[in-house]
Design brief:
The chain is of the alpha/beta class. The protein contains 18 helices and eleven strands. β2, α3 and β3 form a beta-alpha-beta unit.
Length: 414
């Protein structure tokens, strides 16, 4: 299928399937901003509220665009806050809280990821907001959830990975547990929060009822642990670290090529293994007792890996990938992000896109993962500057005059 065919019936009057929805964010770090970003990418209008002067702590996390440590150039902040507008509000002060409530009264969805109880202490919890906006969808994200014995504990991505099972199965056999390379627990919490929010939106559309959503890092990580929980409870099988192997199958690993690249190969099933033996010029391995079936290959995984590694070491990455693809064997190059940003397929899929930043001009973002043929989403703008939209939103929408805004800024309310 051609891209033009997929989008042939795309509407020109929409910014995504969530066009018309208004989101208010009291978010920082990663999980909350990721949830808001997803909704924004799909067309919702998101207003992010940050503390005046400092803003989201991620504004000061490196690396920085052009090396500028100015609160506006962190790629960490910019990557997960694109598409939003930003106002500054001091939630800790009564006037800041009142302005937040006025914004909430105009919102469909509210997202917050402060420690449980914090928004309540500020008079901005679910009950307080529901009193002024009965159908609000109020999404809270935390480390361990709003209830339960550990709900008081703070949680960041490594905690979610450690206590959600992922770290226990990541690393080489016999080695120490390792954190996955990305902030996957934070991301998963943001994704689950977005899914839960959209489910609540569907319910509200049908009934008029709003509700509260409780998402957390540990629950979200557990939701993505495949068979780990069932195997432990029902089979007395505790999943162990096994490098790149999944369920002990072989071969499934990364192998160095003749031109010093890495190739990921997955061929644990009989049909794949037999085809691979032929490709490697060793058809006799298909009936060798050491690797003739799944159990034998698991028991002799090191031998299998050595055979595959020896063959791949004679091939360039391009040669190996082409040969394996012809034989219908799953293999792929291990790509770093420098290679990814120039990869034609990802450009064709709009997964490498530009958006205009107020300081840096066009900057590169990852695109929107899901494609909608009728109502395509997209990265409409880069992340906002701190308080960039104070006048536009607090003035233009809430009706505060220039003198009011100046006074609030002087007193550090905004």
């Amino acid at each position: 299928m051609e891209k033009s065919e997929f989008f042939a019936n795309a509407r020109p009057d929409t910014q995504g399937p969530l066009t018309g929805l208004r989101v208010l964010e009291a978010t920082n770090y990663a999980s909350g901003p990721v949830c808001g970003m997803i909704l924004s990418d799909l067309g919702a209008e998101s207003i992010k509220c940050e503390l005046p002067g400092t803003g989201d702590p991620n504004r000061f996390v490196p690396p920085f665009i052009r090396g500028q440590r100015d609160g506006e150039s962190s790629v960490v902040y910019n990557s997960m806050n694109r598409g939003k507008r930003c106002v500054t509000l001091d939630f800790r002060k009564p006037e800041g809280q009142e302005l937040f409530r006025r914004l909430a009264a105009r919102a469909d969805i509210l997202i917050e990821n402060f420690a449980p109880g914090t928004m309540d202490a500020w008079g901005l919890g679910y009950d307080a907001i529901r009193a002024i906006k009965p159908d609000i969808i109020y999404t809270s994200i935390s480390g361990f959830g709003l209830y339960g014995p550990l709900s008081h504990k703070r949680g960041f991505d490594p905690v979610g990975q450690a206590m959600g099972g992922l770290m226990s199965v990541t690393g080489e056999a016999g080695g120490r547990p390792l954190r996955a390379g990305t902030v996957i627990a934070d991301d998963m919490a943001g994704w689950q929060a977005a899914i839960g929010t959209l489910a609540a939106l569907h319910h509200r559309n049908a009934t008029g009822e709003g509700q509260r959503i409780d998402a957390c890092l540990t629950d979200s990580q557990l939701y993505a642990t495949s068979y780990g929980i069932m195997a432990a409870a029902e089979c007395d099988y505790i999943w162990q670290r096994s490098g790149n192997a999944i369920g002990g199958g072989a071969p499934m690993n990364t192998y160095r090529t003749a031109d010093d690249h890495w190739l990921c190969l997955f061929a644990p099933f009989e049909k794949q293994w037999q085809a691979l033996c032929t490709v490697m010029g060793k058809p006799e391995l298909a009936s060798d007792p050491r690797c003739q079936d799944w159990d034998a290959r698991v028991a002799n995984a090191q031998f299998v890996d050595l055979e595959v590694a020896a063959w791949i070491a004679t091939q360039t990455a391009a040669q190996a990938e082409a040969t394996l693809e012809t034989a219908d064997i799953v293999a792929a190059p291990v790509m770093d992000f420098g290679e990814i940003v120039n990869f034609p397929h990802y450009h064709a899929r709009d997964m490498i896109v530009k958006a205009e930043h107020a300081v840096h001009g066009p900057i590169t973002h990852y695109g929107v993962a899901t494609k909608h043929s009728r109502t395509p989403g997209g990265v409409r703008r880069a992340a906002p500057l701190l308080g960039e939209h104070n006048a536009e939103i607090l003035g233009g929408e809430l009706g505060l005059g220039e003198a009011d805004l100046a006074d609030l800024k002087t007193r550090k309310i905004i």
